[in-house]
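Morning. Coffee machine broken again, so started the prediction first thing and wrote up yesterday's gels while waiting. Chain of 347 residues, entered below exactly as on the submission form.
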Amino acid sequence: MAIAEAEAPPAREAELGAVRKWTITASVMLVTVMQVLDVTVTNVALPHIQGSLSAGVDEVSWVLTSYLAANAVVLPATGWLSSVLGRKRFFLICTVVFTAASVLCGLAPNITTLLLARMLQGLGGGPLMPLSQAIMWEIFPLRQRGMAMAAWGMGIMMAPIFGPTLGGFISDNWSWRWIFYINVPIGVVGFHVSSAVLFDPPYLRRTLRVDGPGLALMAVGFLSLQLFLDQGERNEWSESSFIIALGILAVVALLAFLIRELTADEPILDLMAYADRNFAAGSLIMFVVMVGFFSSMVLLALFTQKVLGYDAWTSGLVLAPGGVGNLISLLIAGRLITRVDQRAMLA
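Came back before lunch.
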């Protein structure tokens, strides 16, 4: 028995040779790039969508809000859904849902249909990045993780670099609908490659029980919070009974969700993970970074086109250098992450 256990790691290493590791990396990177590209491309196309569908600024902003609201609902449940469906199956389902929803977005005849399609797209796209990061973290040993995550990040950063300019070019010269259609070939290739090389880790424990109350409270709480933050300013915050009701509903539902998750035998979101100081600090830092990253991209896209009068292509060129800076920093971080104190790099 001891001999068998001692021989297990080499067998595992042989099973995942360099070729398969990087094939898995390329497959998950391709699908994740598709999802991030869609977010950056859509930002610069909002004025074109607004004019084509005869929508107001408030209405067209829901093209982004509906996607993010769906993300907010599905992201906390990603780990639980992976245990229910299996990580490989869940990744493939998300890829299919995102790709199919992209087609529906392109075919949308009105703003209502587009918003519904974007919600479906958000449900499919939200889990792709955390799933791909978990896969990358697992298949590479500790000594290679810095390099592997930097390579993955370089691929992801191609989206902020080329996404705005690509979205601007497509919107100015073809139609905004093609910013969604371009996801189809990427999704098809990503699905077939991922289905061939991905696998479920042996330690993944399948959850058979469904925490219905926890799932319902999570959906209501995060969706209400998303709508409260998005619509509050437009409705004068405390002057609107609708916004006040949304705020109260969000607080009550999220508090009930926290209590439920702390007491449930098989919670959807394991809150005990936040007892780890490093994990809690990392989550907080990523929250702050993502708030700045996504909000600045949306505001800059609207500011350059609505206030400065740039066309979509020029607006994209304004946003692209930010991605170049991210790419350079990733190259440096990948080299240094195993050689210096990561806390110093983070600071």
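Confidence is low (pLDDT under 50) at residues 1-14. Going to sketch it on the whiteboard this afternoon.
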